[in-house]
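#onboarding

Welcome to the new folks! Below is a worked example of what a typical request in this channel looks like: someone posts a single protein sequence, and someone else replies with the predicted structure as tokens. Don't worry about understanding the tokens yet, we'll cover that in week two.

Example request:
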Amino acid sequence: MGYKSLPKLNYDKTMLLWKYISKIGEKWVSYPFNADGWRLDVARDLGKSRQLNKTFWRYFRKIVKKANKEAIIFAEDYESPREWIESLSWDGVMNYIGSMDPISYFLTGTEKHNDDFKPELIGNSEWFINHLRWAWSQLPLNSKYVSLNQLSNHDHSRWATRTTKKVGRAHINGHDEAENGIDWDIFKIGYLMSFTLPGAPGLYYGDEIGLAGWTDPDNRRTFPWNKLNEKEYQERLTFMKNMIQFYKEHFSLRNGSIEFLKWDKGFVSYGIWNNDEYIVVIININDTPYELEIPVWISEIKNGKLQVVFSTKNVEFKEIEVYNGIIKGNIPEKSAIVFKKL
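Example response:
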């Protein structure tokens, strides 16, 4: 790409380079370091050809897995990773196509750098569902569940700032403007979606308290330890802790089937289930309550009761009755509710 300061390694030339790089991969997943795996930066850019790239990463992965069969290898990739996954070059990806992009556009219309705003995608459930179905088709089952779901990271604007729906960067808009106009209801809904859609949820430091920031380098702000005990920060921290606990307690979120149940403008619902657990997620990003009628039978729930196990807002009811595979009720404005079959 023309950066003279970066080293140029010729992977075409000799196996010595392949072995040298792979030995580094092996070292850090082995005793005494025991790293959990590798995240490969701009992984499809290595090598002079696509085939060479896939072949080298397959070799690298074999060496790493031989040293530690539990090690995970996931790549930074912004497009379909299907050919790399199917050739056993990577285990998964940073899940831009199945998490950050669709969630960000559906909830805020804002591109992940705050460089563009697409208001027509806000609440566009048809686009959201079609995009996710395409993304899932590009990720085989195991890869779908180990790929990293993030809403913020070191390369992109903070999720809190994207909820402002502003286009801009720090050198244009100013550092402080990233904190003005954050929609905390949408912030919470986004994280609940990233924890319940297929993938391994990941928190970028600072998001547990809603740290703001434009894209790199403003997204790398220092953690505000001096403000941590303030009420608003503690409330967000408690929300994140409770959501993580909810995630850990429900194994279907890590291996279950998923299907969309009912959708409308600004409204979407989906069921997640395995042999032992049945969960329904309902999301309303409209400014008014939404009267719902959802065919939960699609997720194999025919009768009985559903219990509220997590929500982004307090709800008056704790249970809802299932009649002939249907639930009826309403969901408050700008909120998300998770039910579990009793």
